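Loading example: each entry is read as two labelled lines plus one structure line.
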Amino acid sequence: MSTKQRIAINLPVRSQAYEILVGAGTFASIATILSKFCPAHRYAVVTDDRVAELYAVRLSRMLHAAGYRTDVFAFTAGEPRKTRETWALVCDAMVEAGLGRDAAVLAFGGGVPGDLGGFVAATYMRGLPLVQLPTSLLAMVDSSVGGKTGVDTPAGKNLMGAFHQPRCVVIDPELLATLPDEHLRAGLAEAVKHGAIADPEYLEWIEESAHRLLARDTEALSRLVVRSVEIKAEIVQRDERESGPRKLLNFGHTLGHAVESLSGYTLLHGEAVAIGMVEEARLGERMGVTAPGTAARLRRVLTRIGLPTSIPPEFGSAEVIGWTRNDKKARDGRVEYALIEGVGLPATRDGLWGAPVPDEVVAQLFAGSGRR
Amino acid sequence: MSTKQRIAINLPVRSQAYEILVGAGTFASIATILSKFCPAHRYAVVTDDRVAELYAVRLSRMLHAAGYRTDVFAFTAGEPRKTRETWALVCDAMVEAGLGRDAAVLAFGGGVPGDLGGFVAATYMRGLPLVQLPTSLLAMVDSSVGGKTGVDTPAGKNLMGAFHQPRCVVIDPELLATLPDEHLRAGLAEAVKHGAIADPEYLEWIEESAHRLLARDTEALSRLVVRSVEIKAEIVQRDERESGPRKLLNFGHTLGHAVESLSGYTLLHGEAVAIGMVEEARLGERMGVTAPGTAARLRRVLTRIGLPTSIPPEFGSAEVIGWTRNDKKARDGRVEYALIEGVGLPATRDGLWGAPVPDEVVAQLFAGSGRR
């Protein structure tokens, strides 16, 4: 698949609609794409030092060659830096560089620069236009689409943030060439989630193609990105602000966020979500919501990809449950889970897309497994 | 005028439309108003310690009596605390209190709690519903209407923020009874601005009524609030995001923000805007944009109210110009001013609502006046 694909995100507010451009070579066309979708007087590239080392010179050269004034703001890579402090430092550096309301932000990198750069765009001088330019598989298939931006606080992930729709998302699978193996695997976890909540055939295809995907076969990766973006686009345009169907995308994320935080971010987000999906499927099976065998099915796919599938034994139930209560999905003192009835079958009862799960039931996951 | 007035703000996104309820006694009806316009599981009252001391017990009692769970988050009063640090502290305290996405924020107080509480609502867990409950005249006639939220940074005012429309604005002029004199005067500066940019008769009425307004005549203050809100509402609903006509509201604010920052916030915002309006009218007169005599006319009204009308002699032109360049209104390296052609006559040229003014012209304001 060498041709480029365009996927439209239609939103109730038409001015917020945007396109996702997927294709090998889109990065090389970035200047043309910006001039069409997000013309601005100056561009602020918000990225991390790892991505900057690999691509910042090339990106700056392309933009300068097209006559665009560009400044690069790079922070230390890693989820522990996705904080309000980093956000403040980047914003201060932008003020210092003289960037005004006629500037636009390019969030360039994996999920962290995407979320943090997006939050900078959402809040700098009350909002600048934003383009998402993801370089990790996780950001390509998931976090760059949907308008969520934010930072973590010591109390939990993404607790501060905003919805800020990009002007466009530019996805070039060729940028995956430099992605470390464990990040490639972690990105595949979110694709597995898309199969699990919406498309059993897609899940099967991922399982069959695991070898090619891990070998970075460009055709397979492009196909994966396109299908995942289609699924995510279909869901987010039905529910821009996560009041309904969008909650489906949280499958695996309630326990996932808890173990990710508890690990001190030594677990990658995708690794934590892989664990979260299997454990939440087990939870659903125990509650009679999820068809027996679903957790085993997910575990098989994820294991083939090389992802972890159970909560590390050093985490106790009380700690994990404590973290879930800080989650944004906690409502009315009970924690909401997005469960599935089976592969491709979201559990929606009484028109609700998330279900409160009592702490006791979560605690039972830990019982009889030698865990606390 | 004892009856209550309702002013509708219609916005292109209909779900963001809201009403402004003005009237003596609206504060006493707050529980009923919230249940109608902003029902929520819990309410977070964001306020400052001065307002909290005067009104928090009464507000909490009213809400508790109506069965609403309410937490009060109060920070030290004053513009110097309208920072990212205070924002982070308030948000952390809300997480600590267990507030989730089913909560709503009441921004309660003057411009500072309004802007900061609004920014908390805009960014807490990617956005909570917001009600503005202003207690200062400035907040009633100006900052509570229009959806602007934000915090200052060391580099300038409101540099970080977001547009976040409230569900409703509740204005009870009786709350002005406890407002210190200098804050009452400062609030009148924004009302003078409304007259200056949109309604010469209103400006005249303010001048004639200055004595009654300063004596806190409830009928006069209510009439002032209603007319100012009408003018502001008319402008902001034409231009939610300040791309066009809304820039008019920045009259007096480019030099105003500069002197406010330079004073270390010992000048109140309204005092700085009073200075800014007269100096920007002088600027316009020098440029041939503003009718001769306009600055003198504004100076007369503002002096009658007891407001300052010229840049303090200790501020040099280089310092003031330096601060204007950090302003959000700086574009393309030039600073944009919202000028008027005369009282009630905005200067709009070539369909533009703001005009770049070269630094040299600003510097001339200082020449020949014994100032640096």
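The longest helix of chain A spans residues 218-236.
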